[in-house]
Amino acid sequence: MTQCAHLDQIRDVQPHTRGCEECLKSGDTWVHLRLCLTCGHVGCCDSSKNKHATKHFHHTKHPIIRSFEPGEDWGWCYVDQLELDLS
Fold this sequence. Notes:
Elements: H1 21-26, E1 33-36, E2 42-44, H2 52-60, E3 64-67, E4 74-77, E5 82-85
Antiparallel strand pairs: 1-2, 1-3, 3-4, 4-5
């Protein structure tokens, strides 16, 4: 089984906002939210038209996000392309 090589980059972060940071600034909407586990950035998912969580990864290279949706405890490593159980 392949394992994520970036778990050491997970930090104890606090979300910067309760919604997608960029969409809130521009007055846009989102579908679901993702939390960067390196810095606390909140971005919209790839089902959202702006895909700000993925854009944040491309800009910062912070590898791991988690779902910021109530009741969801999964994560994703962009570099290793792996879903992570963060429960």
